[in-house]
Amino acid sequence: MSARRLFTLAVLAISAGCSAKDAAIAPTSVVLTFPSTEAAVASDSVQIQVFDETAADPANLSGACEDLVAQVGSSQALPAALVDVSTSACALQSGDDPITVGVGVRAFLVTTTSNGTGLLIGCTVESVEGGSLLVPIDLVPLSDAVVVPTTTCTALSQHCSGGC
């Protein structure tokens, strides 16, 4: 896929939670990469869920995401999330309020919808320990049947400002 077709959105600052006796933990940023500007514009709802994977097998952390993606794809119930935030691509682009994530191994699952229908999905597992952490998540179509609507917008910001 060409760089022109990818649309990356630094969307959310996440604060890692800590107890009062712990030192402050620097914010963490989630960076979503949409397959195209059209997909970003069509994503009217973005759901970010964070799951505890501290007990997961360190040799198979990618299995946690594979399981979550399979559960979403087959409409199965997901395990309880530590964080569950629903927002929009426009709100995220404008610097939506941060969410708090405690330290540990975490699976970050992102799903988007367009007019109430599943559109994109992405997942990654990261260790939240402290300091500055970027959590990149590449979004892909939820299934082969997904058709991303066309748009006259050339940028998400143009869509968010009502310019197209």
What does this entry look like structurally?
It contains four helices and nine strands; from the N terminus they run E-E-H-E-H-E-H-E-E-E-E-E-H. It is an alpha+beta fold and 164 residues long. The protein has one domain. The strands form two sheets. A five-stranded antiparallel beta sheet has the order 4-3-6-7-9. The longest helix has 12 residues, at 62-73. Mean pLDDT is 80; it is low at 1-5 and 10-26.
Short description:
This protein has one domain (3-160). The chain is built from four helices and nine strands. It has helices at 37-42, 62-73, 89-93, 156-160, and strands at 7-17, 28-34, 45-52, 83-87, 99-102, 104-114, 117-128, 133-138, 140-141.
What portion of residues belong to β-strands?
35-45%
Multimer state: single chain
Shape: globular
Structural class: alpha+beta
Rg from Cα: 16 Å
Number of strands: 9
Q: Count of DSSP helices?
A: 4
Average per-residue pLDDT, rounded, comes to 80
CA distance, first residue to last residue: 25 Å
Count of spatially separate domains:
1
Question: Unreliable segments (pLDDT under 50, ≥5 consecutive)?
Answer: 1-5, 10-26
Helical proportion? 10-25%
